[in-house]
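> agent: user asked for a holo structure of the chain below bound to flavin-adenine dinucleotide. Plan: (1) validate sequence alphabet, (2) canonicalize SMILES, (3) run complex prediction with ligand conditioning, (4) return tokens. Step 1... ok. Step 2... ok. Step 3 dispatched.
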Amino acid sequence: MSEKYDVVVIGSGIVGASTAYNLAKRGVSTLVLERFGPNHTNGSSHGKSRIIRSANPENIAYTRLAKSAFDRWGELEAESGSPLMIKTGGLIFGDRKDRFISPFLSDAMKSELDYEIMSPSNAMALFPQFTIGSDEVAVYDPSAGILFPERCVDSYSSLARGFGAEFHFNEEVLRWDAASDCVAIETQSASYKAGRVVLAAGAWNAKLISDVDLGLRCERQVVFWFKPNDDSGSFMPGSMPVFICCDYGRHFYGFPDLGDGVKAAQHHGGEAADPDSVRRAVGKDDEGNVRAFLGRRIPAADGTVTGSSTCLYTNTPTGDFIIDFHPKHSNVLMVSACCGMGFKFASITGEIAADLAMAGKTEHDISLFGLR
Ligand SMILES: Cc1cc2nc3c(=O)[nH]c(=O)nc-3n(C[C@H](O)[C@H](O)[C@H](O)COP(=O)(O)OP(=O)(O)OC[C@H]3O[C@@H](n4cnc5c(N)ncnc54)[C@H](O)[C@@H]3O)c2cc1C
């Protein structure tokens, strides 16, 4: 006999955890099924830090969504009593024609947000850690900062549990089968029934949604921590902002030293991967790329590597999230909200997923996220 829930959420990364919290808080009976253990490092929601920023040059719609996302993270922080983020400011610098920078020079973005456009010399006077070319430009977003991903996942999960949600770890969903009135879910050890299912399986969504080609591509990413060659404190939060550098057609990003060193990585540019067989080991080729970037742009941070981690991006064909119902099943909601930028929005994407699962609609603007 299968147990029956209002909603089964597949995946307990940040999207699944946020969705479960939003459902359970509304009194919805919720089961979360997760194939690995709590705080595992096989998916996309680990790695000690994530950038949060109001300024989202990817599309003005994300900039608008970010305002609500900031509010919800603040609410989660208050409700959980756990410190989840710090404000450091954010510096985006490099080629003024780059897709990450040119939107800031437009009137549309200026009317939405407070940020400062800086000449290279002014930016380097304020933040001498960085090397910015004389023909480049810098944008300073004072609202930007750092989210602590593991704490965010834990906070959503434990609050969801407090509202009655069940979490089953180390229980992989093998298949689901939707009929008009319910969805049957089979794992390696049990079977369940649910009124609705939310597929929040990150890079594994493509495997769970095998009858629709969403064009999801999993991309291997490697991040590094470097011990700075400078003990003056200039790489600590308070002195150094989070940053995105538009570096001759490529994008690198990073964080001040939170105790493990300066974290830096290339955004995209990783190899295509299968999440079940991705190369987890980190090689000298991975490090060389990021080290060369540091040498050019943040030379005093180019010290010993103190740590590294492999992580997965799930990219969609348009670069926008997919949050929509399965084309054949109105009780199966697909949530693929990564594209290398999804963490900061998860406080809202979980709310949107809960709205759609229970009411079929949401007050948030989700026009970018539908299947096209
Ligand atoms: C290196 C890196 C840096 C990033 N930096 C930023 C940043 O600075 N700012 C930002 O906003 N975003 C950033 N992102 C993106 C952000 O981290 C992701 O958008 C987000 O973590 C995606 O969460 P998720 O819950 O969709 O996926 P995941 O965290 O991968 O969760 C999916 C879960 O589903 C589980 N699962 C899969 N298949 C099954 C199954 N069959 N049965 C049961 N469970 C299953 C998996 O085990 C996993 O736990 C970054 C991502 C990476 C990889």
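> agent: step 4 complete. Summary for user: Residues 209 and 334 are 8 Å apart (CA to CA). Residues 3-45+150-215+318-369 form a domain with the FAD/NAD(P)-binding domain fold (CATH 3.50.50.60).
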